[in-house]
Amino acid sequence: MEPEIFKVSCKVPNQIFSFKIYNIDDINEIFDNNHELYEISNFRTTLDTIIDSYENDIETIKLLHKRAKEIDDAMNRGIGYVIWNIDNFKENIIFIEGNSTKELLTSICQHPEILKYQAVKFEPMKEEPTEEFALSKNKETNNMPETKKEYFEPADLADYYKVYEHGHRRTISFNLYDTSQLHAMCEQKNRELIELDLFRSQIEDSIAINEGDDWLVNIQKNTLEQVEKSQKEGYTYAIYNPEFYENGITFIEGSTLEELLHSASCNAYALDLREIEYEPRSNTDIYLSVPVGQEDQIRSLGAEFDEDEMRWYIPADTNLQPFENWLYEEQVINNTPSMN
Prior knowledge:
Elements: E1 5-12, E2 15-21, E3 36-39, H1 40-53, H2 58-76, E4 81-84, E5 94-96, H3 101-108, E6 118-125, H4 133-143, E7 146-151, H5 154-157, E8 160-166, E9 171-176, H6 179-187, E10 192-195, H7 196-209, H8 214-232, E11 237-240, E12 249-252, H9 257-265, E13 275-281, E14 286-287, H10 295-301, E15 304-306, E16 311-314, E17 328-334
Antiparallel strand pairs: 1-2, 1-6, 3-4, 4-5, 7-17, 8-9, 8-13, 10-11, 11-12, 14-16, 15-16
Helix pairs in contact: 1-2, 7-8
């Protein structure tokens, strides 16, 4: 009797492709790069070997012994297979019921978070002659499109930032669109945000003008040394009180609005604030790439579903940061049919 064959259909950007699964070993083709299917008794033996290799790492050994107990319990319940990310011991083991290819595929498709492709479906096919198995399998493997995920940072999609200034008595919020507003934000606190090249030039001019006033010139030379040292260390801007800059200068780094805002938030004390928080936001809706099974999670974060486009999106003027795991596009990187 020939082995049962299954046609597996997977969705990738702008197309659906399919390939055949001939046996249990082929099932690993539908997982992402981190997970793998193991026969449970073989995996238990492998785990013992891993435990022995961590003999001096007490915390890891404790975790691995916990995983070993979970496997022993599962074996007693008749579980035949497991899926695990062997490079991440903290990740939970997924126990798979069934022994046949069909039973395993049915169980695995209930865990879309570990699959390489979206919308994986399978169906039995008519049996093929044994002598055609290898040739057919190799041809399909060569034609299988490879995909990669191109991620976007929330800052790449942001039109502005919602800023929250937490003072000692109250919190105020406002929208920040460009660095000129960041300068104005500092001026409201009687501080000045200045590029170090310009700051250095101003100090050098002041030293020349005040030649003869040894006390003031010494202060300005000390300040010049601080600026030069900070430039060598990679800092690009300074925040200071223009009337009393000898009382202290805070150096920050960055060139973009997001970089400067992040650096300023790490030095909120320079603006006499307890804390600065900011959220990247967009003036338009941002579409998301959402694997099957994660819809409830993004809905709870505020995402909405576009019935026309059949896609989830972040509504305009919403904080983009909580959605960073879904800000990507899948691209086909190898869709050229084999010439064999």
